[in-house]
Amino acid sequence: MILLRMLVFLILSGGVLAGACAANNEDDENCNDWLAKSVKLMESKPMKERVKIFLVQVSHACDKIPQKLVRAARSSADADPDQRYRILKKASASFFQKSCLDNPSPEPAKYLPPSCREVHTAILSNISSGEYLYGRAMEKELEKISNIDSFYSRRIMLNYFLSAAILYEERHGL
Predict the structure, then answer these.
(1) Which of 34, 112, 120, 155 has the fewest CB atoms in 10 Å of its CB?
(2) Would you tell me how many other CB atoms lie within 10 Å of the CB of residue 81?
(3) Is residue 113 domain-resident?
(4) What is residue 22's predicted lDDT score, i.e. its pLDDT?
């Protein structure tokens, strides 16, 4: 059921809508290579391991991903869940209005103010606000990269959100 909710969430929210064009320069090629390798690695592992793999991969991302997101990924990859939620939410601060950051990080994203959520769905009950905001910040950054392969950018984010939701549900007995 969670898979269906995640799929609906990403479709309704628009996900990453960057063009699926061939890369025109070396930076774009590096980002597309990083993205394709990251997705293939994530999808070769069990769903519960994909959040950590995502964070490890982001910690080695192409140069177009902001360093604050890269550093947060590096710091949170081996952190306990509560610490990870806080690190990721703090890294997302500059991407959202202050009211989005007032909610405690481990709280479900459904408690974020409506202006902080792309769409109100059941999935917001199954992911921490810190992980949700970090994921949305990453989506926004991927959207900014010209010539990024939208097929892989959507897949990496789908894997991240789905894995985070499964782990959150398991941890909180949902």
Answers:
(1) 120
(2) 19
(3) yes
(4) 40
Q: Does residue 51 form part of some domain?
A: yes
C-alpha distances in angstroms, 170 versus 9, 130, 132, 153? 19, 17, 17, 26
Structural domain containing residue 73: 26-172
Upper half-sphere CA count for residue 167 (Cβ side, 13 Å) = 21
pLDDT for 6: 53
Q: How far apart are CA 66 and CA 102, in angstroms?
A: 23
Q: What's the pLDDT tens digit per position in 101-149? A: 887 667 888 888 888 887 656 678 888 889 999 999 999 999 998 788 8
Counted domains in the chain: 1
State pLDDT tens for residues 76-113. Answer: 999 998 899 999 999 998 898 888 888 766 788 888 88
Assess if residue 150 is contained within a domain: yes
Rounded Cα distance, 166 and 48, in Å: 7
**In sequence order, what are the residues at sequence separation of 6 or more whose Cβ sits closer than 8 angstroms to the Cβ of residue 146?**
18, 19, 21, 24, 28
- Kindly report the pTM of this predicted structure: 0.82
